[in-house]
């Protein structure tokens, strides 16, 4: 038997991938997947290297099957294939909540494009998640306020 490339490997590599794998089951709760995404480190790829705390990067944006722009996000660095690294060789980790907080209103997101564990969220879905979920470290007294870094 030949070994699968990492991006097609069916063995979950972290908590987010375990939730993504369970998300395919009939009794799965999509909230578990969303919370795992928001509260775990995820990875984007960029042509720009991160130079410092205040530096800006331009992450890789793909086109989905309808031709709409989607931000490419990965659940683990090994899920980034050579095809994406050729266009954007820097793999940068950040919290899933930070990704959603910085997406514009017209940009969707694809998690693990072309990999075993993945899905796509359209801009409306991103807006719904931003509306319905708050960070785990935000208590009820600060709901609606922007936290300090």
From TrEMBL:
It holds the Pfam family SseB. This is SseB protein N-terminal domain-containing protein. Residues 16-127 form the SseB protein N-terminal domain. It comes from Arthrobacter ginsengisoli. InterPro entries: SseB_N (IPR009839).
């Amino acid at each position: 038997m030949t070994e699968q490339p990492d991006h097609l490997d069916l063995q979950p590599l972290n908590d987010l991938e375990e939730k993504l794998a369970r998300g395919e089951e009939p009794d799965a709760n999509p909230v578990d997947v969303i919370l795992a995404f928001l509260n775990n480190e995820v990875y984007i790829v960029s042509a720009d290297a991160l130079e410092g705390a205040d530096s800006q990067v331009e992450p890789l944006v793909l086109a989905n099957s309808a031709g709409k722009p989607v931000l490419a996000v990965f659940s683990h660095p090994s899920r980034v294939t050579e095809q994406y690294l050729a266009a954007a060789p820097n793999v940068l980790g950040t919290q899933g909540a930070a990704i959603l907080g910085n997406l514009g209103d017209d940009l969707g997101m694809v998690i693990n494009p072309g990999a075993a564990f993945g899905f796509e969220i359209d801009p409306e879905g991103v807006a719904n998640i931003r509306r319905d979920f708050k960070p785990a470290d935000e208590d009820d007294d600060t709901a609606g306020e922007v936290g300090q870094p």
